[in-house]
User: Fold this.
Amino acid sequence: LKEVLAQKIPVWRDEIKSFVKEHGDKKIGDLTIGHAYGGMRGLKAMVCDTSEVPPDKGLLIRNTPLKELQHTQPEEIFWLLCAGEMPTDEQLADLQADLKARAKKIPEYVFAVIDAMPKDSHPMCMLDTGILALERESEFRKGYDAGMKKDQYWEPTLEDSLNILAWEPIIAAYVYRRHAGKEPFRIAPDDKLAWGPNYAHMMGFDDPKFYDLMRLYLVLHSDHEGGNVSAHTCHCIGSALSDPYYAVSGGLNGLAGPLHGLANQECLGWLLQVLEQFKGVPSNEVLEKFAWDTLNSGKVVPGYGHAVLRITDPRFDIFKEWGGKNIPEDPVYQLMAKTFDVVPEVLKQIKKIKDPWPNVDAASGSLLYHFGLKEFPYYTVLFSVSRTMGMCSQLIMSRGWGEAIERPKSVTTAWMKAQAAKA
Ligand code: CMX
Assistant:
């Protein structure tokens, strides 16, 4: 991968530099007071080449629709995110062997750091702390301290990223077993398994169907362009030339929010509450009333809506299809599928909601639950392991073309009011 990027990155860098030199003063949009107070929604003010999310199409990874990538391995997706093309079989085997070799070198102190935390600390906090603790290993920081040139920044960023990707499933599996009180807390990796199935194995799951679900889960959550909270946070921290351990850990802290990655835990809770209250899958009418009750109590219906998408999330479709093939009789799966018929029609009646359709989180939890992964607070950790591929590939790209430190200008409400009066 490093050899491929060494060919491509200088070309991309030159292209971007001359593009910005020639067109840097051209206007690409208008900025309103609403943007500044409204979470900068839709504002085109950052660049991400690894993936994009057209509101009417959903995720494209390097221009390829996700549905065309659903049978791949996550390692292939990481390659695609970084290099812009799929690896050959030989390149894939090389990356997989590299990750396995790195996994063997995980520093032992990370487990002691996690062991110092109470067992009921949130799994996301344990994971983020583990990644942050490993910052001592950063090749980027060592290179920077030794006076590395700007053109070389991407190389140790790749090196750190590969170590993080090799080590994170081991830490995440340890967090799972420790948090759930399943001894032994550590299960050795199986060298015969690929990255995704190996993670499942280290968590203690060895059903081939679950291996496949984990593979799919890690593919589907890998990236979602640059402006979402986790990617943007990681990008912002990285722009200060903080190394990937700082940046990824920071991004994951953003993923831990209930409006972002934590929604998958909340969504499954919502489905189980329905099953418990109605002693099984209720009728459409009952489900509709339950959705209205949720909304009228001031809560969101988790798993529905999106800041960018305006269609059913293709990741939801892919998971739903996988469930239909593999676990069609499961009641939680059946309820999840039924909510798809009911909830959008309810949300469409609320004018302010721009997207009434399900996002990825509406489906994932029900599938995990079927296989016995019932510890909801853990679900965002799975999301994190996958999203690390996106965050790291975005960091490698940014360091590759020498992106500037982020520094938007904030203004006061008094300034905004003065602007409004002038306009
Ligand atoms: N249930 C109830 N209200 C909803 C809603 C839902 N599922 N989706 C949006 N709304 C509300 C918003 O809370 C907002 O209300 P206020 O103006 O009173 O604050 C209003 O509708 C307009 O929101 P929007 O412009 O359509 O959507 P946003 O970009 O503001 O928010 C999101 C997007 C995902 C946070 C929101 O749809 C939501 O809270 N959904 C439920 C949680 C969820 O599934 N999150 C996971 C998203 C996937 C991810 O990024 O990880």
